[in-house]
Amino acid sequence: MSPSSTYLHVPSRDDPLILVHRLLVSFSLFLSTAVAQEPSPGLKILEDPTKSELVISIGPIDLPAGISHHDLKQLPVQLARFPISGILYGFRAELLDKDDRPVPMVILHHLNLIDPDRRELFLPISRRLAAASKETGEHSIPWLLFGVPFKKGDRFIYSTMLHNPTDTTYYGVSVNLRLKFKRATKLWPVFDVYPFQLDVKFPVGNKGFDLPPGKYEISYEARPAISGRILGIGGHLHDFAVGLRFEDVTANKILWDAKPSLDEHGRILAVPVGEFWKRLGVYIESGHVYRVTATYYNPTSDTIPEGGMGVVGGIFLPARGQVWPLADMKDPLYVADLNHALRLTGSHVEHEASNQEASGSVRRHHH
User: Fold this and answer.
1) What was the pLDDT predicted at 328?
2) Of 44, 211, 291, 303, which has the most beta carbons under 10 Å away?
3) Range from 16-20, 28-32, 135-139 that averages highest in pLDDT
């Protein structure tokens, strides 16, 4: 990676998000070690004009062979601002060691890029701009037609979780999120679009769940804040997953039914992507209820702790006259979700908000 310019960011002391962060600290029962209590590795934001990419990089970190994400002291959550304006039209995750050699993607448990100023489509929590895991790969949309707008000074949260299930120790690893971008003009893109997520473990808290033996399904239902069209959809699952479904409950219609690729041991290889933009998208109505369902088959006789996850994510084009809503930073769900994103766990606010359904509902079914 040989970017032509580097933008370094240090959050200002009067940043409103930092003030919210301090408020959460004041009533949190304890601080996770992942929130920096000592000098932490800095965040680098670099422009790579040769690939039209904006690179968000954090590290280095050493990854001993066989270490779990529970036992590893994770890189701290980062709060920063975009140094330039433009549109995003794709992304991919990249892991490099101290000598800039690629590290296997199996090391990446997950990463998240979060916009704290705008809410999610289906919940009043911070909007997820991008998320990746070992099976995510590279994704993009036609930038002449579509782009996710961002402006210089827009805030974001960058968090990563790593582990090392391999027999090799990796030293000085950096976690890079490479965002494909263009500087916006009056000519392109034709449409501003926005990312969304719907997780089976919404509204807030840990998204992993225990996986009992046999077939297991878990769902979550919610209503979107605005109407519009889903132009593309994908998702994230864990090993032993056999399906990920998104449906319009009100209309009793399945909109996307994905079967993940697995190896002979049931390990996840890839989740299909639905390119709805090729058929002008799938219309979503604000008055309808939508459901995401993850289906697993655990062939073992044991329950796998936190063995499952299930989330759909995609690109959304608001209907004419519809404006993507800003986040309400006083909403209990927003506060609890931010608390979780910053890894401030155990607060009474997070506990109380996790019991709220926010006009959504969770469904579980074990065969």
Assistant:
1) 93
2) 211
3) 135-139
Gap between the Cα atoms of 160 and 75, Å rounded: 7
One DSSP character per residue, 120-163 reads -SSSSSEEEEEEE-TT---EE--TTTEEEEE-TT-EEEEEEEE-
| pLDDT score of 166 more than 60 | yes
Least confident segment among 83-87, 328-332, 339-343? 339-343
pLDDT score for 25: 40
Averaged confidence pLDDT in the chain: 84
Query: pLDDT grade, residue 341 (50/70/90)?
Result: confident
3-class SS of residue 21: helix
DSSP secondary structure, 309-332, as one string: -EEEEEEEEEPTT--PPBP-TTSH
Distance, in Å, from the CA atom of 184 to the CA atom of 115, rounded to the nearest integer, reads 19
Distance CA 247, CA 90 (A): 25
> Which H, E and C letters describe 188-241, residue by residue?
CCCEECEEEEEECCCCCCCCCEEECCEEEEEEEEECCCCCEEEEEEEEEECCCE
In contact, 160 and 252? CB cutoff 8 Å? no
Backbone angles phi, psi at 365, to 5 degrees: -145, 125
The span from the CA of 220 to the CA of 198, in Å, is 8
Structure tokens given for 340: 């979780």
**Strand 146-150 with 191-192, pairing:** parallel
Closest residue by Cα to residue 147 from 208, 70, 91, 84: 91
Is the Cβ–Cβ distance between 238 and 307 less than 8 Å? yes
Dist CA 192 CA 210 (whole Å): 38
What the block records as the tokens of 157 is 């949260």
Q: What is the pLDDT of residue 208?
A: 87
Summarised one tens digit per residue, pLDDT across range 238-248 is 999 999 999 99
Tens digit of pLDDT for each residue in 241-274?
A: 999 999 999 999 999 999 999 999 999 988 988 8
Measured from the Cβ of residue 362, the count of other Cβ atoms closer than 10 Å reads: 13
Residues 6+ apart with CB under 8 A from 5: 46, 47
